[in-house]
Amino acid sequence: MIVIMDVHATEKDLERLNERIRELGYTPHTIRGDDRLVVGITGNTGTEGRMHLEGLPGVLQVIRITKPYKLASRETKPENSVVDVGGVKFGDGNLVVCAGPCAVETREQTIRIAKIVADRGAHLLRGGAFKPRTSPYAFQGLGEKGLEILAEAREITGLPLVTEVVDPGTVTLVGQYADMLQIGTRNMQNFSLLREVGKLGKPVLMKRGMSATLEETLMSAEYLMSHGAHDVVVCERGVRTFTSHARNTLDVSVIPAFKKLSHLPIIVDPSHASGSRETVIPLALAGIGAGADGLLVDVHDDPDHALVDGPQALLPDGFQDLMDVAARVSTALGKSIASHRPAVAERA
Amino acid sequence: MIVIMDVHATEKDLERLNERIRELGYTPHTIRGDDRLVVGITGNTGTEGRMHLEGLPGVLQVIRITKPYKLASRETKPENSVVDVGGVKFGDGNLVVCAGPCAVETREQTIRIAKIVADRGAHLLRGGAFKPRTSPYAFQGLGEKGLEILAEAREITGLPLVTEVVDPGTVTLVGQYADMLQIGTRNMQNFSLLREVGKLGKPVLMKRGMSATLEETLMSAEYLMSHGAHDVVVCERGVRTFTSHARNTLDVSVIPAFKKLSHLPIIVDPSHASGSRETVIPLALAGIGAGADGLLVDVHDDPDHALVDGPQALLPDGFQDLMDVAARVSTALGKSIASHRPAVAERA
Amino acid sequence: MIVIMDVHATEKDLERLNERIRELGYTPHTIRGDDRLVVGITGNTGTEGRMHLEGLPGVLQVIRITKPYKLASRETKPENSVVDVGGVKFGDGNLVVCAGPCAVETREQTIRIAKIVADRGAHLLRGGAFKPRTSPYAFQGLGEKGLEILAEAREITGLPLVTEVVDPGTVTLVGQYADMLQIGTRNMQNFSLLREVGKLGKPVLMKRGMSATLEETLMSAEYLMSHGAHDVVVCERGVRTFTSHARNTLDVSVIPAFKKLSHLPIIVDPSHASGSRETVIPLALAGIGAGADGLLVDVHDDPDHALVDGPQALLPDGFQDLMDVAARVSTALGKSIASHRPAVAERA
Amino acid sequence: MIVIMDVHATEKDLERLNERIRELGYTPHTIRGDDRLVVGITGNTGTEGRMHLEGLPGVLQVIRITKPYKLASRETKPENSVVDVGGVKFGDGNLVVCAGPCAVETREQTIRIAKIVADRGAHLLRGGAFKPRTSPYAFQGLGEKGLEILAEAREITGLPLVTEVVDPGTVTLVGQYADMLQIGTRNMQNFSLLREVGKLGKPVLMKRGMSATLEETLMSAEYLMSHGAHDVVVCERGVRTFTSHARNTLDVSVIPAFKKLSHLPIIVDPSHASGSRETVIPLALAGIGAGADGLLVDVHDDPDHALVDGPQALLPDGFQDLMDVAARVSTALGKSIASHRPAVAERA
Predict the structure, then answer these.
(1) Which residues of chain D have a CB within 8 Å of the CB of C190?
(2) Which of C315, A138, C279, C297 is nearest to B261 (CA)?
(3) B246 contacts on C by Cβ (under 8 Å)
(4) DSSP-assigned letter for residue C19
(5) What are the residue ranges spanned by the domains of chain A?
(6) Which residues on adjacent β-strands are paired with residue A88?
(7) What is the rounded CA–CA span in Å between residue C179 and residue A345?
(8) Nearest-neighbour CA in chain C from B169: distance (Å)
(9) CATH classification code of D83-347
C-alpha cells in the first residue's frame, strides 16, 4: 500500500500518518520527492483493505498494491489451469465448443438439437432449464423437468452437460444433473449463489457480469474457488457500453488481460454478445483470434419458434459453417478443434 | 409493433410478411412511403415478443411499441403512488431520509448511530445484517444476530427499519424483522430473489442495477409487483460509466425520466454514488434538485474503524449539515423534510 | 513515479531497473514489502512521462504521481479563480445564468429572445453563429452575419456575449464580437483550436468532451491557459453512457471532483444534457445542488420552428420558472442569483 | 417517420397531430391498435428532421425511419467500395496492413522503420508529422519537416503514405505529401476539418471517435463524401467504456454492423486499442476474425526512446510475427495478405 501526500502536506501530517501506520502494526517508508511526499507501507497486509488512511490530513490518495484475489491469480499459480469436464479439457491449448439451445423447451427439441451439435463436432451440450428473464411474464424454463431432458440428451449424444443455476436453493438439484454449472451474467455478483456453487465443488462456467471489471470478475472466481470449486472457466459474453449496434459489446481485450492476471481458462459467448444470427460467426472468430479457449454458442433448428433468444441462434448449417471456419482459424493459430471426447463411434 | 422494410424489399417480401402476421393472428397495415414500406401490426399483442419477424426477407427493423411492464407503468396508474412504511410516506411530495450505518457491526455501534440519526431527524433506520461483498474474504455481516440488533435499535428510536436481503432462502427471516426489504444493486436482476421478496408482500426498496437501463429497472419492479409486493420504492445509487472521479456516476437524469414512465417513488443514495464523505452532500442536493423523493445515507460515528465503506459515511456533524441544507432546499422546492413520524416526544 | 514489481521479480530485475532510473538522472528508492518490491523514484520529473519503464523485466505496473497539469491545478493556486466577462463574475460564489437561442437564425428571432432572457434576469447572452452539426445536410449557422446580429442583441440588452468558435481560422473573427469564446464538446480535444483560442487571451467557456475524463478536461483547460487564456470556465453538459433516457448523462459528480482538483469555475448545461424541455429544470437544479457556478440554457420562443435543438429549448415562461426556482435554491445554499450586471435600469 | 401516441391520447389529439402533418405537406396514416394509436407519415421527407411533433399533446414518441446518411449507405450502393491508394486496394477482400512509427521523430528513425515494415510486407507507411497530444507540454510533431521525411521514406520503400491532418489550415500542405489523409479519433467530429479534407478529394482514413455511435461515424464519413472525398476508409481503434484493462475497448462488433449499413471499407488499429505491445497481436487477430479489411499498426525499433506511445509499438520481430500469423489467419478466412503493391523487386 502506498500513500501519496498532498503537495501542501506538512511534516506534522506526515508524523500523524506514520504513527497511525505503526499503530496498525505496519512499517512506513517515507520517500521525499521534489514536489511531494510518498509513504510506502510494508508488513503483513492481509487486512490492509481496512486501514482507512484516506481521511487523514495531508493524504491525497491511497494506492493498494496487493491484489485482493489469490487463488485465481497467476502470481499464485503461474501455469495455465486445465479444467476437465467429462473428458473435455478447457485451457489445454485447444478450442472447446459448447453448443445447444438457449433454453430447453421440449424433449424433442432438445434431443434433436443435441444430436445436431454433436454430429457437427460440439464438445459440450449447453441448454437452460432455469432461465433468468428480464420480464416476469416471459418463459422461465422447465425447471427439473428440463434437467431430466438434458440428461437424456447427454445419454444419447455422449456430450457432457453445462446448464445454468439461478438460485442457491437449487444448486444441489442442478448439480445432480450437470457436469458443469453455469453462473449467468446477472448472477456474477450473487454471492449467496457463488458460495453454494462453490461448496458443491463441481466445474463452473462463470459468465462475466454485464459491467464487471476484470478485478470484479476475478473476485467472483475467487468466491467460487475459496468455497471449494477450483475448476472455474470464465466466459466473456459482451459488456454494456454506449453502443447499440450489437446486443452487447464483446470485449475481446479482456481475454489477453485476463490470461495475464489469471491461470484460469476463458471462453467467449458470441451469441449473447451479438444478439443476431448473422454476426455470431464474426464475433466467434474475433474471440478465437484474441486467444479464447472456447466458445459458447446458441443453436436452434427452428429459431422462429424458439421461446428464448431465437434471433441469435445459429441454424444447423450456420453452426456447421462456424465449426469449419473455427477449425481452420484454430489451425492457423496452432490450436486444434478436434474432439476431446471419446470417439464419435463409441457414442453411436 | 411496427416493421420497417429495407429499401430494396420487393412486393413478394411484403406479401410473405403480411401472411406471416395474419398467420400469427394479427392484422398488418401497410404504409407506402417514398423510399420504403412500413407495416404496422394490430391485434392482441400480449405475446408479441415472440413474433420473430426480424429474419424475414426484406425486413430491416422491428420496433416494439407496447411497453413490457404494466403494473409499474404510469400509463396503467397515472397518479403518484405513496409507499407507507410504518407511517413514513415515500412519494407524498416530501423528502424521506433513510440513514444509518452501512453495516451492523456491534449492538453498541448500531444503537449509538441509530440514536444519532433519529435525533437529527432521519425518518427510517438503514443498516445491513447481510452484506454482499465483492471479496469472499471481507466481512459478510452478522446475519440474524444483526437483525436482532436492528430491531432493538428500532425499538429504542422508533424509526422503521430498512435492511437488505440477499438470498431467497432468508426472505422470510428478514421479513420478520424489517419494515422494508432492500434489494441491492447487484441483485436487481436476481429474479429468484425478486420473486420471493415479491411474494412476501412487504414494502421494498429496490436499488437500480449498476448498469441497468430504465426499462430493466422497471421490469425488476414489475417482478416484485406481479408477485405481490406493490409498495416498491426505487433507488438510484450511481451507474457504471467510463469516469473514475467518483465511485459511481449518479444519474440524476433518471429521476424525471422514471417519474414520467412510472408512478412509483424514487430516491437517491449519494453515499454509494460518491464513495467519499466530502462529496456526499453535493450529490444528495443534486438528487433533491432533480426531484428525488428521498435519500439513503450512510452515517457512522467512527468511520475509521467501520467494517464496510467507512470512507463514504457521513460523520454525525456532517449528517446534521445535510439535514439542515436538505431542509432549506426542500422548502425552496415546495417540499417538506419535517418528520412524517409520530412526534419525537412520543418516542422518548 | 512509483514502480511496482511482479512477485516473481528477481534481484537482478531490481538492479536493472534501478540502473535505468539512475541513467535517466533520477533516484530510486526500494521498499521491500512482504510479497513484492516497490521502487519510488525522485528527481526533477518534468519529463517523466517518457521513462518507459513498463517494459523492463519484473515490472508489473508504473504509477505516475505528478499531475500532468499545472496552471489549472488547485495545488498551484489554492484559492478559487473568478472569471470576469464584461462585469459578470463566474466563480465568485454566486450563480451565473447564460441563456439564449441555441443558434442565431434571424435578426428578429435573436433580438426577441435576447430581450426575453435579459428581462428575466439572465447575465450572459448565448447563441451560435457557427454550429457544429452531426449532419452535413443540417443548418450550419449564419457565420459572420450571425455574429453581427449577436453584437446588436448585446447592444440592445447590455448582456455580454458568449458564442462558439469551431475553426482555428475564425478565432480572430469571433474574438472581434464575443466577450467569451465557447469551445464545443466535440472540439474539447481539437488542440489546434485550443491553441489559437488560447493565444487570443479572451475568456473561454470550454465544454467537457462527451467522453472526456476529468484529467483530460483539465489538460484541455491547460492548453488554453498555457497559450495565454487564463480565464477559463468549464461546462459539464452530460457525458455518453449506456443509458438512453436522456440525450446525455449529466455527470453531477464531476462538479465537486473538479473543484477539488482545480481553481477554475464550472457550470452546467442542462439543455444539452436533457434534450427535452420538460427535464431541463430538474437537471439545472441538480447542477446547482452539486455546486455549479452557473447555468448555460437554451431558450426559444418558437421552438417548433427552431433550426437547431428546438425540443430542448425552454419557452419564455419555462425560463422564468427556472430563474425563480434557481433563485430560491441558490438562496437556500447561501448563494445569490441577483444580477452581476450594471443595473437593469441602465440597460433600459 | 412514425408517431406513437400515448395510451391516453384523445381523438382531438389525433386530429391536431394529423392537421399539423398535413400543414407540413406530408400525409398521415393512422393505425388503431388495441391499446394505442400510431401514425405513419409519408411524403418527401428530406427535411423531416425539423417536424417537431414531439411536443404535441398525446404524442409519446417520434421514430425516424429514413437514415440521415445517403452517400455512405449500402442502401444507396449495395456493392462494396474499393479504395485505391497508390495501387493498394482497401476493401477488395484482402487484408491491407498500414504500419510505421506513431510519430516521425527524426529522418533516420523514420527511414529505418519504414524499411523494416516494407521488408516485412506492409502495404502502406503510417507516421505522424502533426500529432494531437492530450498534454500541451508533450511533443507535438515535426510539422512540414516531418512530411518531407515521410515523403523521402516513401521514395525509398515504395510504400504509399498515410499521415494525419489536424487543422483545416494545413489540409492543402498535408495533401501535397500524403497519399491518404488520416483524421484522428479526437477530430472525427471536427466538422471544419472534415469539410476541408472532403474538398481536397484525396483518399481518407477516418478514425472512429472515442465514443462515436455507428450512426455518428457514418455521418462523419458522409461529411467527407458530400464535400468530395468519396474514397473513405473507416478505422475502429477502440472506444471508451468502463473498463481499464486496455487503453480502449476494441469494438469488434462494429465491423459486421458497419458493413451491413455501409459499402465503405473498415480496418482496425490494434495498437491504440491495446496500449501495450503484448496485446497488439491478439487484438489484430480479433479484428481480422471479425472481418476487418486491414490493420493500422505502430512499429518502432527503439520504443523505449520513442517520443509518442512507445509502449504500444511492436518491435520489428513482433511485427514479423504479426504478419506471419495474420497471413495464416487470412488464408483460413479465404483472404490474402500478399502484397497489393508493385513487386518488391521493382521497389529495390
Answers:
(1) 186-187, 190, 193
(2) C279
(3) 253-254, 257
(4) H
(5) 2-63, 83-347
(6) A85
(7) 83
(8) 33
(9) 3.20.20.70
